[in-house]
Fold this sequence. Notes:
It is a single chain. The protein is mainly α. Helices cover 93% and strands 0% of the residues. The protein is rod-shaped, with a radius of gyration of 65 Å.
Amino acid sequence: MYLVESWIINFDAQMVASILLHVISVLVLFYILSKLLFNPVREVLKKRKDGIAKEYDFIKDEKQKATELEKEYKDKLANINKEADKILEEARKKAQLKEREIIKNADEEAARLMARANKEIEREKDKVKDEIKVEMIEVAKILASKFVASSIDKKVSDKLLEETLESIGEETWLN
């Protein structure tokens, strides 16, 4: 049995004290390591986890803002065509008003020119009429002097009248 007893652990007081001392040492070492090493590591990991959570929230907020901006820009792009059409329509209206004003001014100027030309034509007509009257008076004088100078013969006077009329021309009498 001695051989068998050597194989079995003998629990004597020294061994139990040694085991208890080792267990207490391990627990004290574990406590010290937890205070010095595990808790700071846990705090670093917690800070890292909180930092990652904050970054995730920040990214989520930024993504939401980007989505809102994208929607806003899409709306603006859609409204740009409407605004451009509105601006073009206003420009067309202004151009049409300007065109009407220019046409009105041109018509007024044309009317003034026409009135001036008509007055000038009337003056020229009056001048020509006065000249014709003067010529008729001259013709009448010539006719009277020839009529008096010749015998008062009907044939001669008709002949003189025709000659005078031919010398003046038909155009003078028609105007």
